[in-house]
Amino acid sequence: MRLKCSNIMVSIAVFCVLTCCHGKTQQNVEKTADFPELVEQGEITAVTLNSSISYFRYKGQSMGYEYELIADFARAHGLRLNIKTAENTARLVEILQSGEADVVAYPVKIDNLAKEEMLFCGHEQQSSLVIVQYASNEDTLLTDVTQLIGKEVYVKHDTWHHERLENLNSELGGGIRITDIEKDTVTTEDLIEMVARREIPRTVCEDNIARLNRTYYRNINIDLEISFKQRSSWAVRRNTPLLAQAIDEWASNSTGATTYRAALKRYFELSKYPIDLMPRIIGGKISPYDDLFRKYAPRLGWDWQMLASIAWQESHFEPSIVAWSSARGLMGIMPETAVHLGFELPEMDEPEKNIQAGVECLRRFGRQFAAIPDSLEQIKLTLASYNAGIGHVQDAQRLAEKYGKDPAVWSGSVNEFIRLKAEPQYYTDSVCKYGYLRGTETYNYVNEVLERYEYYRRETARTARSE
Fold it and tell me: Which of 367, 421, 371, 376 is nearest to 398 (CA)?
């Protein structure tokens, strides 16, 4: 297989950015600080992309694989971390070279053009495009690119995924049945979910995105590569060699290596597969914590079965559980949220304290939607905020209004835009303040909690009538 044209084009684009900004920013760059000066100043600025891999806000907390690594580097050296986000990879380099950031905390492709202008440092990655296909014992998995001949592959139109697939098809002499998805409302992660649900046979994406989604869908196979591996790593300016050296030393020492392994496990290995939607109810009892749900639900004006449904979704009624996101206990309380609400973190392992925190969090979110006349819409928007953070829901409301939808209605309006916050076209829109969100998770969360609530309410009412 020959190297894909997009790699060449990206390299040319990066070179052009470097060349164009070099002259006008050279004076500023010469004044920027190397590592000793950063330590003296007590802070470092990193630029990255807003994405499911690198950096995002979830339940009010900063998260992401690259974010956790650069945050650990800053912490190890007693530096305050400032995060900037760029619209695309070319802007990452431009922001770095202008002196607005000290390091690109995102994998930048390593090639000779880029090495003339930047120093690469930290953990090196090797990535490629892969086929995402359904995996089961009954199916014959494709294990070689030649087996794609005569097979259908779904891919988003006018993307470099599509370009690489077209090039591969040409290299093979034709025969791959490429199905273009031209709707901009379908995301790459939507296509992966469609493969997992057997709605389409296969799609294409970067291997790191595939690995992350593998933690959500254990029935997909991501082993078939369709491009050469591309080396990449973080980057700093050439006039900050001591910063590059410090990052390399951190990456290779025990602290950096431990954080690296933990981040790999958290984002690319720990299962995030959803639990059963409809647990059994025996004798009208949903959980060992029903009395606590009854006690605190009136603070919200909600049925106690709704709290029970949230708790099952968050923890499977396991009071000491800690999720991949660090959410703790029955109601899935984030550490920063617990502290903000006035609780001690160890208290989140206590069922009653955890439920109190969950109810107070829901109550505060709900106040933001009090002016909406439909109480069910208030509940839906509150549930979405509890899952994703209220900032993302407000972003989706602003998007809904911009595109002529009702920002006070969840179904068919705000929920569609919460899902689309996984696409750069939408999360980089000027009306959005909170960036990327894996919106499909929030979209499903609201539906699943409400569906289970109706089941709980129906079954507990039936049991009560029979007594």
Answer: 421
